[in-house]
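Structure first, sequence second, as always.
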């Protein structure tokens, strides 16, 4: 356990004493948000080690917290780790959850905490918020990606070994491997529902929202729907990567990320993955950074990371995204993968325009989209909710 130090000396008239608990693989990426809350002037206690249930209870009984701020992944893991009533609920502490993935696919666990103490779920996609509210969740609020730290993602010297025209930073597994990994023990009904999603994904050549596609036929708070949604996230990612490679044709593309895919296509260059906090050198070494988004409307956090690095991003069109980075001014969007070859060719030939857009994207990020900006929004909302 540690207290996050306030680096600014800022003092609030009524600071909140905030608890956060690490319980997820990627919590390190979310930590800048806690630092931002501390720099605003709140008192932030971060449990950065795994405890037994009794250890959490003793902490909550020893220190009086105003609110707990939990990452969605950590909340899911806490609910999965301990049976019975959620221990933060038992102690009567209000809490909120901040999400970087689609909350709908976790409803089989979350249904037991649709309670007055769960004051807010902050979600990065307005379509998912509409879905949740339609399912009876009144405590859902929009918060675009909230954890991008300009001290981590920033312009840096390009890496000689990663310099290329077109780059794509992503995990990359084959569709067959993903299908085999996630569908074990499924009923025929589950497989049929999943196959419906996959068929539409292949036909549309775009991400298909699982709830919109099959939600009417399933109890979305069931374990079965949760398993289908989880599998579809990974299966669709695999398909999208295949479709991207097909779309770029003969254009050389460098793919950086962990994965099991092996390709014999000479124009597809595979690189080992980099740590999440060492991606700026990749972005700054690439003339064009591609992105694909596994959300119905959201702006993917990769767009923020690339823009924060002062690099040029080309990403798929999403309704929420274009309100955050202006099309053709701060980011370049494609509405279909079929547009990619012409867009890539156009911007490879226009370095002046690329630099203008990349610089504007970085300015927009620094002016509106850092972790500090988002935590100011969150802090103001916390006062309302409490």
């Amino acid at each position: 356990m540690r207290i996050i130090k306030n680096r600014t000396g800022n003092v609030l008239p009524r600071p909140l004493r905030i608890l956060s608990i690490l319980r997820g693989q990627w919590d390190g990426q979310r930590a800048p948000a806690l630092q931002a809350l501390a720099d605003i002037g709140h008192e932030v206690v971060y449990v950065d080690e795994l405890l037994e249930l009794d250890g959490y209870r003793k902490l909550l009984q020893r220190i009086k917290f105003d609110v707990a701020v939990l990452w969605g992944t950590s909340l899911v893991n806490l609910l999965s780790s301990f049976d019975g009533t959620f221990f933060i609920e038992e102690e009567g502490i209000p809490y909120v959850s901040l999400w970087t993935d689609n909350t709908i696919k976790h409803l089989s666990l979350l249904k037991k905490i649709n309670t007055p103490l769960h004051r807010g779920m902050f979600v990065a996609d307005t379509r998912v918020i509409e879905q949740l509210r339609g399912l009876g969740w009144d405590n859902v609020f929009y918060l675009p990606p909230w954890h991008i730290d300009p001290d981590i993602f920033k312009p840096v010297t390009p890496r000689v070994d990663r310099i290329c025209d077109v780059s794509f930073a992503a995990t990359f597994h084959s569709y067959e491997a993903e299908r085999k990994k996630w569908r074990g023990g499924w009923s025929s009904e589950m497989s049929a529902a999943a196959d419906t999603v996959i068929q539409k994904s292949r036909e549309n050549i775009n991400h298909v929202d699982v709830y919109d596609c099959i939600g009417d036929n399933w109890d979305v708070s069931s374990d079965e729907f949760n398993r289908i949604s989880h599998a579809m996230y990974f299966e669709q990612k695999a398909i999208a990567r295949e479709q991207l490679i097909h779309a770029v044709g003969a254009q050389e593309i460098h793919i950086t990320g962990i994965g099991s895919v092996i390709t014999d296509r000479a124009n597809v260059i595979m690189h080992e993955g980099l740590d999440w906090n060492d991606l700026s050198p990749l972005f700054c070494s690439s003339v064009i950074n591609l992105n694909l988004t596994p959300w119905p409307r959201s702006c993917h956090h990769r767009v923020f990371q690339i823009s924060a690095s002062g690099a040029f991003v080309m990403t798929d069109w999403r309704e929420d995204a274009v309100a955050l980075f202006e099309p053709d001014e701060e980011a370049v969007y494609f509405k279909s993968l079929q547009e990619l070859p012409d867009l890539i060719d156009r911007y490879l030939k226009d370095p002046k325009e690329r630099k203008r857009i990349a610089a504007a994207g970085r300015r927009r990020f620094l002016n509106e989209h850092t972790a500090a900006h988002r935590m100011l929004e969150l802090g103001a909302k916390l006062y309302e909710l409490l």
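Margin note: The longest strand covers residues 118-123.
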